[in-house]
């Protein structure tokens, strides 16, 4: 029931390859959640479909640093304290550039991440200065 499922489905709909770090959920459950239609959670697990396309576009890892390696962006969807203490310089160095952080829970220090070099979007917080004047695209 997490909003992260909808975010991941949106990214998959845009043909993104995603790497998920969620040590609280099994890989099998993550794949099933992403393959299910919305509100089909009440069906028995053995009746829930597994999409080969989804499986190919999604990798699940048990290490936050591995999940971010060679990524274009990071989406933070949970309020775990762990996300406050990660080595974001190490993460930034392993990512493709420009490197983005989308903080959906306001758990990271946006200014510190910007100092490292990230382009940061945080719910309810100001955008990076150079983004403020960009025209909206319809």
Automatic annotation (TrEMBL):
Gene Ontology MF term list: NAD binding; UDP-glucose 6-dehydrogenase activity
Transmembrane regions listed in the UniProt entry: none
Pfam families membership: UDPG_MGDP_dh_C
Highest taxon, organism lineage: Eukaryota
Recorded GO CC terms: nucleus
Domain called UDP-glucose/GDP-mannose dehydrogenase C-terminal: residue spans: 1-110
GO biological process assignments: glycosaminoglycan biosynthetic process
Protein name: UDP-glucose/GDP-mannose dehydrogenase C-terminal domain-containing protein
Organism per entry: Aegilops tauschii subsp. strangulata (Goatgrass)
């Amino acid at each position: 029931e997490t909003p992260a499922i909808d975010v991941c489905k949106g990214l998959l709909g845009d043909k993104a390859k995603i790497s998920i770090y969620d040590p609280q959920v099994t890989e099998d459950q993550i794949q099933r959640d992403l393959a299910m239609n919305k509100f089909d959670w009440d069906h028995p697990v053995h009746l829930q479909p597994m999409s080969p396309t989804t499986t190919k576009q999604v990798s699940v890892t048990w290490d936050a640093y591995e999940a971010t390696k060679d990524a274009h962006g990071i989406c933070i969807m949970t309020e775990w304290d762990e996300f406050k203490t990660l080595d974001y310089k190490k993460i930034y160095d392993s990512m493709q550039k420009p490197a983005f952080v989308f903080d959906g829970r306001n758990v990271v220090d946006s200014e510190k991440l910007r100092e490292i070099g990230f382009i940061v979007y945080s719910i309810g917080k100001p955008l990076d200065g150079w983004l403020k004047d960009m025209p909206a695209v319809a």
